[in-house]
Amino acid sequence: MESSLVKDNPLLLPLNKEKTIYDGFITVQERDFRLRILLPPDRQVKQARLHCCWQLKHLLHGYEHIVKQRQQQSPDLVTFILELKTVLEVGLKSRHECRSIPPPQYYAQLISEMETLGWGKLLFIDTEFRTLRLKAEDSSRRQHILNIKLKSKHPVEAPECSADLPVPLAITWTPQSTLEQLHSQFLLLLESLTEFWDVLDEIDSKTWILEPEKPSRSDTMRRIAIGNNTSIKVEVDPRHPKMLPECCLLGAEHVVTPLRNKLNANMHLWNPDSSVLHNLRDVLEIEFPSPATHEKSSFSVECGICYSYRLEDAIPDQVCNDPRCGQPFHQACLYEWLRALPSSRQSFNIVFGECPYCSKPITVKMAAQKS
C-alpha cells in the first residue's frame, strides 16, 4: 500500500515512523493542493482528520458529505486519496464551467459607457451586467431593440449583437469601441432599411395580410389577399425595396392564370419611383381588398378537411380548380387525405386524386418535412 501511495502521490510523504501523519501535496488536473492527514494509531481511515489549504477547501465546498462518505467506505488510505481526487476533479470541472466574475474595471467601464450613451436608451440589463437591450428609433418613429451580450473582457472582446432585422447585423468593433458607437452603427443600419419598412407598412395597412399572421421587422414576405381563396405572395428585397419583388400567385388555376398573364404582360410598366402596392395594382389590373372595404373573415376560409383556418403556421392554400367548387384545403390535410384513398396515385412527390367535395381531379405536392 505504501509503495502505491508514494507512486501515485509522490509529493505526499509520511512525517513519522509510525506513518500516521502525512503532509504534502496531491495533484489534480496539473494543479497541486496542500493536504495534511492525521491517522489514529490503528491507522483507520475512518477516524482520520484532514487539514486542507484554502484552495482545497474552496473546491470541496458543497462536497463535504461526499468526502465524509468516501472516508467511511474506503478500506485504506490509497483508496481514499483516489476517491478524494475524483471529487476534486468534479469540483474543478464545475468551477471551470461557471462564469468568471469580471474585474471591477469591467463594471466601471460599463457604467461610464452607459452614462455617455444615456440611461434612457437602456431597456433592460441582467443581474450579471452581461446582457443589455437598448432601444432605438428610426426616422419614421418605428421602435427597434438592439440585444447586446458583453464578454468578460469588454471592451477588448467584441460583444454578441442581434436585432429583428431582414439583413445580417454587421457591427465594426475595436478594443476602443463603446456602446455609444455601437448604438450609432445600429441607427445607421436602421436608416438604410427605412424605405423597406415603409413599403411593408403601407402593404400591411392597406391590404389584408394572410401570412405571416404577426409580421416581424425581419420578415420580407407578405401573402396578400386578392379574393376568395386567391392571393399573391411577394418577397421584397430589403436592399432594393422599390424594385419588382418576387411574386407567386396562389389559388385555383382558372382564377390565377389570367392574373399571371397580366403580371407577365405588364411587368415593363413597373415604376421604381412609385410604391410597391401602387405598382402591383397597375401590373395586375386589380384593386386589393382592404380593411376599409372588406372583413378579413371573407378570406379566412376554413380547410375542407380539418375545418380549421390555421394548422400550426399553415393556412389553406390548396384549392380545387373546378370553378363550381373552389374548396380550399391545407396542403398537409389534402396530402394525407389523398394518400389514404385507394384510387389515388403518386408520382415522385405529387399525389393525384379526387377532390373530397366535388370528386374532380386534384393534385397536391408532398408536405415538406420540418427539420
TrEMBL record:
Residues 303-359 form the RING-type domain. GO terms for biological process: interstrand cross-link repair; protein monoubiquitination. It comes from the Eukaryota. Signal peptide: none annotated. Pfam families: FANCL_C (PF11793), FANCL_d1 (PF09765), FANCL_d2 (PF18890), FANCL_d3 (PF18891). GO terms for molecular function: ubiquitin protein ligase activity; zinc ion binding. Its main location: cytoplasm. The keyword Iron does not apply. Its EC number is 2.3.2.27. One of its GO terms (cellular component) is Fanconi anaemia nuclear complex. Keywords: Cytoplasm, DNA damage, DNA repair, Metal-binding, Nucleus, Transferase, Ubl conjugation, Ubl conjugation pathway, Zinc, Zinc-finger. It catalyses: S-ubiquitinyl-[E2 ubiquitin-conjugating enzyme]-L-cysteine + [acceptor protein]-L-lysine = [E2 ubiquitin-conjugating enzyme]-L-cysteine + N(6)-ubiquitinyl-[acceptor protein]-L-lysine. Pathway: Protein modification; protein ubiquitination. It is found in: Cytoplasm; Nucleus. SMART domains: FANCL_C (SM01197). InterPro entries: Fancl, FANCL_C, FANCL_d2, FANCL_d3, FANCL_d3_sf, FancL_WD-rpt_cont_dom, UBQ-conjugating_enzyme/RWD, Znf_RING. This is E3 ubiquitin-protein ligase FANCL.
